[in-house]
Amino acid sequence: MPEHVSILQLFGGAALALAAVIWVAVLVRVLRRDREIHQGRFGDLARRRGQRLRGLPHQRRKGPHVEHVELSPAEQDAFAFLARQFSDDRLA
């Protein structure tokens, strides 16, 4: 047992670990117990609604509008200079 850790800290850590293990065991048991009931109920709802979920919004068919800005030749040269400068710094 480490000298700098009190007995209360050791028991507290052990109690938290034990509580976590018990919580996980109970959660797994509850989820397994009710699996058939939930699968049957939600499966019927999904088949009736055509495999859609009501809570989700309708999705757009196409993506968002793409913005495009034309650069002047001077701006293109400045951008090319910056790109070369950054790539030279990374190679050095």
Report on the structure:
65% of the residues lie in helices and 0% in strands. By secondary structure, the chain is an all-alpha fold. It is flat. The model has no long low-confidence stretch (mean pLDDT 80). The chain crosses the membrane at residues 6-31. Keywords: Membrane, Transmembrane, Transmembrane helix.
What does this entry show, briefly?
Keywords: Membrane, Transmembrane, Transmembrane helix. The protein is mainly α.
Rg, Å, rounded: 30 Å
Shape: flat
The number of helical segments is 3
Number of β-strand runs: 0
Transmembrane segments: 6-31
Keywords: Membrane, Transmembrane, Transmembrane helix
Relevant terms:
3 helices, flat, single chain, mainly alpha, 0% strand, 92 residues
Secondary-structure topology with pairs:
Blueprint: H1 7-33, H2 35-48, H3 73-91
